[in-house]
Amino acid sequence: MDKPLIDAREIDGEAVRGSVRTWLRLLATTNLIERELAARLRARFNVSLARFDYMAQLDRAGGSGLTMGALGARLMVTGGNITGLTDRLQNEGLVRRMADSADRRVQRVALTPNGKRLFRHMATEHADWVRELFDGLNEDQRQSLSDLTGALRQSVMRRDDITLTYLPGDKQ
Amino acid sequence: MDKPLIDAREIDGEAVRGSVRTWLRLLATTNLIERELAARLRARFNVSLARFDYMAQLDRAGGSGLTMGALGARLMVTGGNITGLTDRLQNEGLVRRMADSADRRVQRVALTPNGKRLFRHMATEHADWVRELFDGLNEDQRQSLSDLTGALRQSVMRRDDITLTYLPGDKQ
DNA sequence: GACTATATCTTTACAAGTAAACTATTTAGG
DNA sequence: CCTAAATAGTTTACTTGTAAAGATATAGTC
Fold it and tell me: Hey, of A135, A140, A147, which one would you mutate to test binding to chain B, going by the most B CBs within 10 A of its CB?
């Protein structure tokens, strides 16, 4: 770790506390929105956020679906989790497993017609909700927030001592 | 729902997709940072983020601690979750339950000396990590991000059709 | 071609979260 | 007072997530 003990921008500790306060605020607000969206998905469709995200990846992948591994990589979760989610969604007829013709280790997953229909319906409402929740920001603010988020992401990712558990290969 | 079907700011769908894209970006970046902090807490202290947050609330509350209910309200989690976390932390000697003298229904929880020592140690490193991850933003950017986050929070909270599951009373 | 590596998925045991039912207490009316 | 309702915490059954071990299958290497 070669970070300086005293940050050049630090004046009487303000910069230090500033970053922490900004982070806590950002986290709280993001969690607030995520909870709100999850509660609405649950109330209107009886679907969890985990299932919505799962189905979103399959919808984007199209008819040939994804392997379990690729799906786990995109959702940033472990294989065991994907197995469980797939079992439950398959039981509800929203998703189906298919053998891969070339590699007998591989399981491919795709939305059933029912799953696709449900997801499209949810996605439309979900987008409306997001727009509604962001309604108090004008276009400049929204764009600035997006830009600053990008800069923050760069700040986090450009570190070379990053712990990052997941940067998995993504063979779809 | 009395939101207009067409948003005044919408020009050929850009504003709509804009909010969703901004939201997804914000969520991804927040999750990235949260995962990184959680991985470091796990690696250096063998402590989960849930336990860190729990101990942070108790540390802030001081020697008399908090009731189970107040703790759950501050952490935005249900009572059953607090019961389980408390059981595990108590088993590790980081936390203790105390009866309330005035109300026999109430359980009060507080950090033990060991718990306090561990938390203070973790909090110092945690703050360093946050500062490090935000290092790529200059002070203006950091302040703008904080301000925009506040505006977004206002945008979400000022809705009157909010679903908000948790706005619990907080008797500490 | 047999042997070892590696890759893919599942299983197991657990942590952390929810909702709903349950227990014990306190509070409010009549 | 005594009972009905509300409050505080726990228990139960379940979902969602992890890490580590296990079962198959493929790929490389001598």
Answer: A135
